[in-house]
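go over this record:
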Amino acid sequence: MAPGSPAKMVVIGAGLMGSALARAFAAAGHDVAVWNRTPGKAKAVGGGTTAFENLLEAVQGRELVVVSVSNYVASFELLSAKGVAAALAGKTLVQLTSGSPADARSGLEWAMANGVDYLDAAILAYPSFVATDYATVFYAGSRAVFDRHLETLRAIAKNSTYVDEKIGSAATLDCAILEAYYGGSLAFLHAAAMCKAEGLDPKAFFAQKNSFLGLLSVTADAAQGMIENNDFTGDQCSLNTHVAAIEHIVRLSKDARISARFPKELLDNYKRAVSAGLGTQELPAVFRTLTQD
């Protein structure tokens, strides 16, 4: 494909995300075929895309194949359909199905066995964010393959980020960011529940959003350097002091008769680090107990 020329491509999967991806590629001027196990969903994508009822016909002659289905099991089932692997030989497959690093490695193994160029990708966005400044897509695999298709791939996210040659690296980074997101979300929701249980309007807590986000930012910056240097000493606030603060949160939760499961889990993890002799070090020292067998 010459730089700047429209790509001839297919999107396999017409769920919310697959549909958003297909429409974004088509809006950027690419020739986009769409296939879905339920033909009506493929037809409903619209936006200048062409729906196919037969998977083999959909992939034939397409230089770029984007897969966005429910899981890797479903993906492998589709790619194993008669004639599909042969039709993809020499083409590029971009796997945008959510999965683990192990899934990504299995995908690469399949691709190599069938002569298919392969990128494993993870999209950090809701379907409505596709093709906006809020979308980020992480890619892992061959840098040369990524560079060859970057201009096309930027149709779904200007922030299309190459992570590493290691095929599982995009999924790893995606899971890491999502864990921070889900963990942080549960934390602030529990915090709001504590406020409500104590008769304090939760809006008073949410009004202080910049306070707890600021603490997270400062701690993340400190943790990065400490982990890099494997040195968690400091003179700001010992792990022992943090454990005492978490104990107050557990007590408040119990007294207010709301779920104490989350703060107790936090306390257990921090206490484990104290038991390992890290109590006088800084909070990021917990990292050491999380990476032990």
Notes: The domain at 208-290 is CATH 1.10.1040.10 (N-(1-d-carboxylethyl)-l-norvaline Dehydrogenase; domain 2). The chain has two domains: 8-171, 208-290.
